[in-house]
Design goal:
alpha+beta; 19 helices; globular; binds 1-deoxynojirimycin
Length: 816
């Protein structure tokens, strides 16, 4: 069953059957003001922090689902009938109403045909101003004049997520609202900058046209589905110092047959004065600034996407890579992982491993944000070489004492709350930073970054802003040294609190994945060091030792063991009854470059044999059924869910990349296609979740809901999917001084095309595959001139900034 389609021309996903089984969400805003909204305009807005500065309220995990939201009600003033421009909350019978939702890149458009009135509501946030714009258009499609009232409505929050949900004895009496000059102002009296406004292009100053109090607008024993004010046809002019507040504004007018009208609402950060300025800026000259801001937003995304566009025989891959996968990866970098309908703002800051991986995926489309994130991460490292698992980057910048301490400001944690000890360290966290830094340098050519100096978390003094400072290069060394020190009796890295798999809690036991990751990080580091002419012998030797321990201790004769518990029991090996084969150890064995090709092939064959399902690869098999605290929390999760043998999306692209390294293009695409959300567009009765987004996991075959996808948007799957497809399967990889072309494709692909912008030059790359092979390049020409191919990959030297280059690559002959 399907509920919509991909509109690639407009870069939108169109939901034309609006009663989707679960919320299908989107993100608006790309800077400080951001919102998460679903297909029926349910959702919330926040400024900078979803935890400490929530603008509008959301009742997560509630009934009815996903309320409240940013709603526009339309009322026929002749009949008293009313509806909303998004299907919910009014929820008109779909036999009489046609609703469509278009999720675009950082905007969402709701449209509705009801009672002869066509209505549209577009939500977006301009690049330059912290204001959410609700661009509303109405058209009278009947042959008679209509008298209509339109109400815009949103419920304000008390900012701090905890205070907004408890301790009402205080918050309720320190939040006030007022109305003046067509503008509603919310004032959180106990905050210095506790203001928001709600206004519209034209609101007459009369009490019928506004309500600042939620309970007056909605009325007792009612919900957003049938607000008293809308039913009556007018507001009551409510406002008060204290109480629950909303922005509710009414505009009433007549529409002749065929006539159209445009109304714009503004929900923004700042006080009433700010609201006046914004309203003037955006309403004058027939809303010219609304239109130009919307176009600027579209261009903002177009420029990013234009950095890499592909055309392959795989339509799903084209649509996902050209639009949605980069979008999802970028949203993860912008929002971190803590704003969605699942993560509803109770946590804030940066998760070390997630942010490192996210930052690695978008240096071509967002170099500055990638670098900013890398710097935040460098400052979140300890001098011992382990990283802070979850931290707030503000902790490690100089603090200015707040003028006054309100209950809603961000709390000031003590040093011990900020900098945890090794007992809370995850063994993998910091290792991800090394390839992220190296990939950033390869993409941008910003070699100077490596010698920039940054502080460490444990020596940082918030008052002076000082602490031990070392170069980026030295930070990376400390990470590698930490992993070399923290090894167990097999010489494999200790698992500590967890590794990438949050639910594998091995403590003093050992993790194969971390040793493989250590090797991967070492290869990145030594390549960087050599390019910079530095002595990295120590680290080359370290890598050789890691290789030796991995091959000796982790190869179990059939595939790669996942690790050892603290009592020395093997996990992920053939004699384990449960948790016999794991994705992480086998994919990373190959990706790390630490193992032989022969063993790599066997390991990935085991992945195919034990972990493949039509919806993607399971994380492990068989699922754990009995709690076993030596293994960890994974044994306490239901079978087939999350890390316990679900199809965990994030590691799936590791398998595509590993298959590409091994030269098996067909297998890589088989795995790609299984997970690809695009391919599940017409099986929503199984998938449930949105088909334009990767989800954190998909219930595995051990679960009754096999195939159901959970937790869209906020997952590292998108970044990794992008990385695995573009760099390994299509094989276009920036190196320090050249662009490598090393594809691994299914033999059935006759050719593909990729347009890649790298360091300001454009590379139009056509790859021809006349003999139907998977891997190997025999000939390559750059602007008509033959280029040398080494190790069966082509290497294009960096071309002049601003140049447009044409590259043709011929893949190998068969059987060579
Ligand atoms: C989600 C977490 O955000 C991520 O850090 C972790 O690697 C995966 N779960 C797997 O446990």
């Amino acid at each position: 069953m399907k509920y919509g389609y991909f509109d690639n021309e407009n870069r939108e996903y169109v939901i034309n059957k609006i009663d989707v089984p679960v919320s299908w969400t989107n993100y608006i805003g790309v800077k400080d003001l951001c919102g998460v909204f679903n297909h029926t305009a349910g959702g919330y807005l926040f400024y900078k922090s979803p935890e400490y500065h929530r603008v509008t309220r959301f009742r997560p995990n509630g009934v009815p689902m996903d309320r409240p939201g940013h709603y526009v009600y339309v009322r026929d003033d002749d009949t008293g009938e009313y509806w909303t421009l998004s299907w919910q909350p009014a929820g008109k019978d779909l036999k009489n109403a046609k609703y469509v939702c278009r999720h675009g890149l950082s905007y969402t458009k709701y449209s509705c045909e009801y009672s002869g009135i066509h209505g549209e509501q577009t939500l977006f946030i301009p690049l330059d101003d912290p204001v959410e714009i609700w661009d509303v258009k109405l058209k009278n499609d009947t042959d008679r004049k209509r008298r209509l009232s339109v109400f815009g409505y949103a419920e304000f929050s008390f900012h701090h997520i905890t205070i907004d949900n408890q301790n009402f004895q205080m918050s309720l009496y320190c939040a006030g609202s007022s109305f003046d000059d067509g503008i509603i102002e919310l004032d959180l009296f106990y905050e210095e900058k506790g203001f928001q406004y709600f206004t519209a292009n034209s609101v007459e100053n009369s009490k019928e046209n506004f309500d600042c109090l939620r309970d007056s607008f909605i009325g007792p024993y009612r919900t957003e589905a049938n607000p008293a004010a809308v039913e009556k046809g007018y507001c009551s002019g409510s406002f008060e110092l204290g109480g629950n507040h909303c922005g509710a504004l009414r505009q009433s007018f007549e529409l002749e047959s065929g006539e159209e009208k445009r109304l714009v609402f503004f929900l923004g950060e700042g006080n009433q004065h700010e609201g006046q300025k914004i309203r003037y800026r955006y309403s004058s000259k027939d809303f010219a600034k609304v239109d130009s801001s919307f176009n600027a937003l579209k261009n903002f995304w177009k420029e990013k996407l234009d950095k890499l566009q592909i055309s392959t025989p795989n339509e799903g891959m084209n649509t996902m890579i050209n639009i949605w996968t980069l979008y999802q990866a970028e949203i993860n970098v912008m929002f971190s992982r803590f704003a969605s309908f699942i993560e509803v703002g109770g946590r804030t800051g940066l998760g070390y491993r997630d942010t490192s991986q996210d930052a690695m995926m978008v240096p071509h489309s967002n170099p500055q944000k990638s670098k900013d994130r890398l710097i935040e991460l460098l400052k979140g490292l300890t001098t011992d070489g382990y990283a802070l698992h979850l931290f707030n980057p503000d902790w490690f910048s100089k603090q200015t004492a707040p003028a006054f301490k309100s209950p809603t400001v961000v709390p000031s944690p003590s040093k011990s709350q900020m900098v945890h000890g090794i007992e809370d360290a995850c063994a993998d966290d910091a290792l991800w930073l090394i390839p992220a830094v190296v990939e950033y340098v390869k993409e941008t050519g910003d070699f100077n970054f490596i010698d920039e100096k940054y502080t460490y978390a444990d020596t940082f003094d918030q008052l002076t802003g000082d602490g031990k400072k070392e170069t980026v290069f030295d930070h990376l060394k400390r990470i590698l040294d930490f992993s070399a020190r923290e090894i167990g009796s097999h010489g494999i890295c200790r698992g500590l609190r967890a590794d990438w798999n949050d639910c594998l809690n091995l403590g003093g036991g050992e993790s194969a994945m971390v040793s493989f990751l250590h090797h991967w990080a070492l290869t990145h580091f030594t390549a960087l060091g050599k390019r910079l002419g530095r002595d990295v012998c120590l680290y080359e030797n370290m890598a050789a030792n890691v290789r030796q321990s991995c091959e000796k201790e982790l190869w179990n004769g059939s595939w790669y063991t996942r690790g050892f518990t603290s009592s020395g029991r093997a996990i992920g090996s053939p004699d384990c009854g449960e948790g016999k084969v794991f994705m992480e150890s086998n994919t990373w064995a190959v990706l790390s470059g630490a193992v032989s090709k022969e063993r790599g092939i066997a390991a990935m064959d085991a992945v195919n044999k034990y972990l493949y399902t039509p919806y993607g690869l399971k994380l492990c098999d068989p699922a754990f059924s009995r709690p076993d605290d030596e293994v960890g929390f994974v044994t306490r999760v239901y079978k087939g869910l999350k890390e316990n043998a679900a199809i965990f999306s994030h590691p799936n692209p590791w398998a595509w990349a590993a298959e590409a390294v091994l030269g098996r293009g067909e297998r890589a695409v088989k795995f790609y296609d299984a997970l690809c959300p695009y391919n599940q567009n017409d099986m929503i009765e199984i998938r449930k979740a949105e088909p334009y987004m990767y989800c954190q996991f998909i219930a595995g075959p051990d679960h009754s809901a096999f195939g159901r996808a959970h937790h869209p948007f906020m997952t590292g799957s998108a970044g990794w999917s992008y990385f695995a497809v573009t760099r390994f399967m299509l094989g276009i990889r920036p190196d320090f001084d050249s662009l490598i072309i090393d594809p691994c494709i299914p033999p059935s692909w006759p050719s593909f095309f990729i347009r890649r912008v790298w360091r300001g030059a454009v590379y139009n790359i056509t790859v021809e595959n006349p003999d139907g092979v998977s891997k190997g390049v025999r000939e390559c020409s750059l602007n008509g001139v033959l280029v040398a191919c080494n190790n069966s990959a082509a290497e294009i030297p960096a071309q002049k900034e601003g140049s447009e280059n044409f590259i043709t690559v011929f893949m190998e002959h068969k059987n060579r």
